[in-house]
Fold each of these.
Amino acid sequence: METIQLSYLLYNLDEVKYCFMLSLLFQNNHTLSECLFWAYELHKSKQSEFLWNFIAKIYYDFYYIKGASFERQIDIEYNAWKKGSDFQHIAKIVKELHKQNADITIFHYLHANINTNINTNINTNINTNTNTNNDDEIKMEIKSNDDITSDILKNNIEHSISYLHTQSAEDVKYIYTSLYKVNRNNDMCLFYENQKHRWIVKLISKLEKRKKVWIKTKLTNADIKQIAEFEAPIDHVYKTLKIRRLYEINPLVGGFKLARFKGETDVVKVWDKTHYTFSDVDRYISAYLHNWEFYARTTPFWKKIFDTYQIKFVKKKPTFPNVDLLESFYDAYGFEPDEQSGETQYKSIRSIEKRSICNCFKKYNVEFNSKLLQITY
């Protein structure tokens, strides 16, 4: 994300995304309630198509290798959601993924590959007999995708992935279908925008065999009640953030490249004991405390509302065609973030340290066998 963009409840939107991801992957550290909260915040911000794509990406990277058949269920719930945008369809998928133990194999292959310089050509040696010496090795150079075999791909998966990234989605699909039997699940999740990623994961999962383990679950009455509470109206609009902000941003999202890490600032007018003065403030703080309307303006939920009230911006401040529209807007959406308690404010503007993905996952007792730096996911 290039700059700060605020969500429905005025969290930094990229940080909501990564809080959702971590709460989904590490169920021993994060409850389902927290996971559903972050998912609903993305949904309410009208990022639902993005959310479905993000869920699919996480599924392919961390769950597909052990639960390929669940791809069909994601596809079913997505198509049901398209008919009415009911969050429960998203919640069903989130709950079932939250129940599983994530497998980092695919994620590690893909991101270790991104963080290292690997020759993009498959030009490898296949040893046809482990008892022979190097003179007996057969050098196999790939001149076309028709030459590819599963042995070539399996011999060096990192190099194979690098090569596959140079191919189109259709080319990767062709390699897969030429090597393996195609079943009905191969036409699932076509809504997922990164089909090349999908087919690469399918190929790697064929090369890296895992025991298929999947725990079935479904939404309970308690889950449905929680979702209803997310959607329930608030009596006084200025209490919205106090009541609705149930969780603070997870500091471990510092393992990802965040908009706040760009080091941008805003000059704002602040009260200094006896008078106002101008001060240079970190943008992620000024966005929440001083200019929330401006930094929320491109988020679909807020954009629709701002358009309805004919709001324009001059030097990051909202302007209205008349006083009636101004008063009507703040009567309905005056969240007053700068007037909230320190506890409520801290939930989004707490300090976050930069860290590597290795360090982030290590905090959850998950270690990689190679160095993974801070990433955009």
Amino acid sequence: MNNNNNNFNLWSIINIVLIIGFALSFRILNEQGFQDSTGISYIIVILFLFFYILNISNTIFFHNEYQLLDKSMTPEYDRKNNKIIYSGSSVFRSHLDNLSKIYNSMNDGTVNQDNSLEYLANKLSRREYFVQLGSNIMITLGLIGTISGLIISITGLEEVMTSLGEDGTVVVGGLKQALDGMGTAFYTTLFGAVLGGFFLKLLHQSSINIADEVVDEIALKTEIYVIPYLSKTVESNINSQSKLLTNYMEQSQDVLKKETDNIKAYMDKVTSLTSSLESLNKKINEHEENIGTTHLSLLKRIEVILKKIQEDSKPLLKRFFG
């Protein structure tokens, strides 16, 4: 790729000439006391500024995309994931995405990038369509201004001719109106032709040429680095299906292994819980024996004490109740 974008350089030169000419023209017209009674000249200038700014925006976008195509990485095809790897120009990325969609939807054959390139070229051209339309509108307004100026001039001349047949008091006013009309006709024609028909058309064509260069570079890179990988045959379909089946089997094995590990871990927990329960039951039995022995010993002691109290109470009962 040629890093020196000649069309962008041409566009820059046109801008320099335009700015210099605009400044000189403004100075000359201001010194001559420029006036336009119809206001069409001012409308043409305002429209030119609007479409000129739009052209600057589009041209900078095209130039940046052109530079990104030169500086960004070469696109690569990832066979494993059936994916085109690229980072850089957004326009090129959009083209590669379109080709990927075409490739994924086809059963056999090779991807043709012509339709995608045409879509891309139209999309870029539409950005500059309004600039071209603005140029035509400005030329048309210049013609309208010419006709309007001539009408005003003829009206003034008519007043002069009428005044000559009478007292001649409106001759000066009529001549002034005629001259103003001629000035309007000339100025609007000049503004429309120079700004719209010359400068804006040159700027527009330079921008379109840059956009065409972007499309050409995208087409060349795609043809070299991408298209050879975007083809499908019967053998490739079988390989693709085999690869999908292999991936499915590998994923199934991974899932089975994972579930087997989960079941094993669950059974280990169940075994551990069973051991814990057995240990708990053993401890409970031991405690129950201890509790039973203690209660029996206590009951025996209570029984002995009660018997002793009973025996000690017998003489006393006999003493009172004989």
